[in-house]
Known about the structure:
The protein is built from five helices and seven strands, in the order βββαββαβααβα. It is of the alpha/beta class. It has one domain: 2-Layer Sandwich (Nucleotidyltransferase, domain 5), CATH 3.30.420. It has a five-stranded mixed β-sheet, with helices on both faces. β2 and β3 (31-38) form a beta hairpin. It is globular.
Amino acid sequence: MLLPHGTLILVMDGGALRLLRNAGLETAPRLELVASRTFAASAAHKFQGGRPVRVFESVGPVRHGVEAPPWQRRGEEEFAAGACALLLKHLSTGPGLVVIAPPRMLGALRAAYPREIADHVTAEVGKDWTHHQPAEIGRMLQRHRD
Length: 146
């Protein structure tokens, strides 16, 4: 994927987000940190992951995934709304916005996007890359196919 100069990249999961901007060339991105946010430690454990809650059967080693509890979905929705507020502060008439988040968080973000943000989204990547460094994210985006 090509990242034009000035493109914003939002990398987030349920507990942290980083907003990056391409300060390099389209073919050789150099991502710089614009802003970052995390949940307070007391609340972060509720919202991190993006994986379904796992439960054990009462007999045997079988485990099943169950739907996320309502408080977890509500927390993700609140975090997505906060991410949109941050984006509105930094979004300009630039070349676009790339959003990288786990699939469930992408759904929460799509529901929270105002029109000003939705019109700027050029790509979405359903991955959890929050623990990668900006340079590594740039390389992974170059290899990523839409």
